């Protein structure tokens, strides 16, 4: 519990808590100055909350010149600025009174067990985004695995050439890590066709297309 010590003869601004707080704060008034000036007496405390039009008596505990107010949720029912007044009675005579400003701090208002539609939509968006991100990560991981497998396959690949009869179409085949190229014999019988070929695998499925480029 928070304790706020107040010299009773000095007006003060007292932050008694936030709206709805109960017995979280106690205000302790030191009434020694009253006792020294007016003699031993009895303290009475009245409070007026924000929005109230009249004051009400507050229960206090008095031990000699020390007067303690334990703030309840009734005292903090409304947020904003209010007042309280401490009276010092000697016998039946009012000897002194001091008015203090009380402050009940702001809060965010009432809570609800059902979130508003906007909140639900926001949660749904986050959930969908999380799922999409996970799928993208999975796809990226699969692509990386495929690329690694392809790279490993290419690294271990070997090539061989076969001479085909003149006038034949060039061929290419790939199996078990071996690329076999079929090269047509040149028309002059020299063993070279005099042509250049490009080999492409546009679909990445091992079906190689051979194109004569010159």
Based on secondary structure, the structural category is alpha+beta
CATH class of the largest domain, named Mainly Beta
The fold-level CATH name of the largest domain is Immunoglobulin-like
The shape is: rod-shaped
Please give the CATH architecture of the largest domain: Sandwich
Q: Would you count the extended β strands for me?
A: 14
The helix content is 10-25%
What is the total number of structural domains?
Answer: 2
Number of helices: 2
The largest beta-sheet arranges its strands as 2-9-8-4-5
Give the averaged pLDDT, no decimals: 77
Q: How do the SSEs run, as a string of H and E?
A: EEEHEEEEEEHEEEEE
Given as residue ranges, the uncertain stretches (5+ residues, pLDDT < 50) are 187-193
Terminus-to-terminus distance: 94 Å
Q: Strand count, sense and closure of the main sheet? A: 5 strands, mixed
Radius of gyration: 46 Å
Your description of this structure?
The strands form four sheets. Strands 2-9-8-4-5 form a five-stranded mixed beta sheet, with no helix packed on it. The protein folds into two domains: 2-105, Immunoglobulin-like (Sandwich); 156-212, no CATH class. The protein has two helices and 14 strands; from the N terminus they run βββαββββββαβββββ. The protein is an alpha+beta fold and 214 residues long.
Brief write-up:
The chain has helices at residues 32-38, 117-155, and strands spanning 2-7, 13-18, 25-30, 42-48, 56-58, 61-63, 66-70, 80-90, 93-105, 158-164, 171-175, 178-184, 197-200, 209-212. It is α+β, with helices and mostly antiparallel strands. The protein folds into two domains: 2-105, Immunoglobulin-like (Sandwich); 156-212, no CATH class.
